[in-house]
Amino acid sequence: MAAPITSVEVQILEDVLSAFGLAVGAALTYLTTKVVPKYIHSQAAQNAIDGLASIAESVVAQFNQTIVADAKAKGVWNAALAAKVKQDAVKAVLSQGANLVKLAQKVVGDVPELVSTLIEQAVASKKE
């Protein structure tokens, strides 16, 4: 038969459980204030970048079908026109993805430069 639990043992058990509760509480506080927000923030930023990339692909496809194809057909496609079209494409993506731009600015910073790169990637993928 087991010996009855003494009041000292009960006190020790209560102290251990209290310390364990404090440790769990501290761990949860750390997770909810430090780790989780960073993950959510980075996930939201990645979603914003993915959304801007999708818009950039659509804009490049549209510009290729209209402006670029027309200029090439007329024989007026050159480096200056290409730079102007890219500038217009950046403006179009920034306009169409205004909400995503606000979100991406918090992490990326220079969103117009990011969009410019996304447009270059979309153009390169169309050439392959």
- What does the overall shape look like? rod-shaped
Q: Helix tally?
A: 4
Percentage of residues in strands:
under 5%
Outline the low-pLDDT stretches.
none
Order of helix and strand elements from N to C terminus: HHHH
How many strand segments?
Answer: 0
Main sheet? Answer: none
Structural class: mainly alpha
Report the average pLDDT across residues.
77
User: How large, in whole angstroms, is the Cα Rg?
Assistant: 28 Å
Helicity, as a percent range: over 70%
> Gap between N and C termini, in Å?
81 Å
Task: Characterise this structure.
It is rod-shaped, with a radius of gyration of 28 Å. The mean pLDDT is 77. It contains four helices and no strands. It has 128 residues and is an all-alpha fold.
Task: Summarize the model shown.
The protein contains four helices and no strands. With 128 residues, it is an all-alpha fold. The longest helix has 68 residues, at 7-74.
Please give a handful of descriptors for the protein shown.
128 residues; mainly alpha; 4 helices; rod-shaped
Blueprint (SSEs and pairs):
Elements lengths: L6 H68 L4 H18 L1 H8 L5 H17 L1
